[in-house]
Amino acid sequence: MKLAAEPVETICDETGCVHRVDAHLDVRGLICPAPALESLKATAALRPGQVLEIIGDWVESKFEVPAAILRPGFSILAVLEDDDSDLWKIYVRRDY
């Protein structure tokens, strides 16, 4: 899938539900553990029902960020990867 580096306004999850993206975090250019730590801070600031888009390009972080932010009260809606680059996007929602 070809990803745009720009933030998006909505995301469609695996079930076909469309979610509004409320906040964006760009961790491109950062290496571990910085993307995971910044993602933890950003998800802590979400209110219930809000969705955060995290954009990064450090390959290892596309695995470490979901592991760090997936905790009770949060859901990962989608993890998208670009076929032609190291760009990835992770969408997380605060459930409660």
Give a written overview of the molecule:
This protein has one domain: TusA-like domain (Translation Initiation Factor IF3, 2-Layer Sandwich). By secondary structure, it is of the alpha+beta class. Strand 5 (74-81) and strand 6 form a beta hairpin. It has helices at 34-44, 61-69, and strands at residues 10-12, 18-20, 23-26, 51-56, 74-81, 88-94. The mean pLDDT is 95. It has a four-stranded mixed β-sheet with strand order 3-4-6-5, covered by helices on one side. The chain has a two-stranded antiparallel ribbon with strand order 1-2. The protein is 21% helix and 32% strand. The longest helix has 11 residues, at 34-44.
Short description:
This protein is α+β, with helices and mostly antiparallel strands and 96 residues long.
Key terms:
21% helix; Translation Initiation Factor IF3; 2 helices; alpha+beta; globular; 96 residues
Strand residue percentage: 25-35%
**N-to-C series of helices and strands:** EEEHEHEE
Mean pLDDT: 95
Biggest sheet strand order reads 3-4-6-5
What is the molecular shape? globular
Using the CA coordinates, give the radius of gyration.
12 Å
* Tally of individual domains: 1
Helix segment tally? 2
CATH class descriptor name: Alpha Beta
Low-confidence stretches: none
CATH architecture: 2-Layer Sandwich
